Structure prediction request, 295 residues.
Amino acid sequence: MSNKPISPLRQRMIDDMTAPRFTEDTQRDYVRNVRIFAAFLGRSPDTATREDLRRFQLHMAQQQISPGSINAAIAALRFFFTVTLERPDLVRNLTPVQQPRKAPVVLSQEEVARLLEAAPGLKYKAALSVAYGAGLRVSEVANLKVSDIDSQRMTLRVEQGKGQRDRYVMLSPQLLELLRDWWRAARPQVWLFPGENPINPVTARQLNRAVTAAKTLAGISKRVSPHTLRHSFATHLLEQNVDIRVIQVLLGHAKLETTALYTRLAVNTIRDVKSPLERLGVNLASRSPPACQSR
Prediction:
């Protein structure tokens, strides 16, 4: 937040978000979207009417704002009017925009190996190996602590992941050895992957830059981000016939349908399904088509 004096209304909204422990990013995003709405309105947002909100959503659509940004604004306004102002009737007609769901990019196992080998230094090789080897989000990789490694139970503890939920993921022997190599080289004290200032963890931006550098060096033409390694983790587990509910737990998904997306990406699994055409008992290829009769 800025150093400017905060209005009582904004402070009340911030307090309403602090009590249920919204993340700083969420709080910042909600405040920004309410501020954008106030600028559109030209007056304090607590004076808005149902018609003002309808006009604002229409304005966003006409400006060709992305569905994700529109839905983020709707979520912020719903919170502001429902919780802070206690006026849920005003936002009843605000409807989220349906977003086309694109299949995420997935790397082959050979491409993952090339990417990890090309990582710029041991720190990023270890961090990206965690992203793939345990299926973690980039923020979860960045916020890992040395104390989260449990070599006795061969698990990694993911503290306060998405949805403010803790979970445990597997720690493979190969990944453990790589993390030990990294620890011996750098001796991190608190954060497993410290940032430029060791008081803070590595940032998502630094991890993104490392992936971009590695993919270029590895000669991979696909669009790749740290999250691509998480997508690849889930898809490769499905191709190994790991139960989808186990994958759901490892990924920290609240809903099974979110994990089910990867069934569309598991090429090996799809390829191994026997087509009903094969069960007809007829060798279609052995029959020659009848010759065309000329008139």
Notes: The chain has 13 helices and three strands. The mean pLDDT is 88. Residues 8-91 form a domain with the DNA polymerase; domain 1 fold (CATH 1.10.150.130).
